[in-house]
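ingest -> validate -> predict -> emit
validate: passed (alphabet ok, no gaps, 104 aa)
predict: started
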Amino acid sequence: CRYLCEHKEMVANRCVLDLGAGTGIVGLTTAWLGACTTLVDVPRVVPLLASNVTVAMGDDRPFASRDVTVRPLWWGDRPAIERLRAERGPFDVVLCCEVVYQQP
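emit:
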């Protein structure tokens, strides 16, 4: 997050996909910096992720962008990826975390 804050021009006024968003801190940082942000992760993570986004985006918070969406996404699910691209893309920046590991 520090790097993004120090280089906000990378995400400000851009469309960002946070792939493997986890708790949402990185994606929320991009929204705070002015990006249209889509946060995705595996379905079991989405309830906590969505809750964190709802709390963080409270009305009194100074986010530069309020265009933030949370979606479930299994990596490799081509139809879901195409729907996401059609609804929220194209993406200017893709941030990735833990995208190469095997689910138990």
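The longest helix spans residues 46-56.
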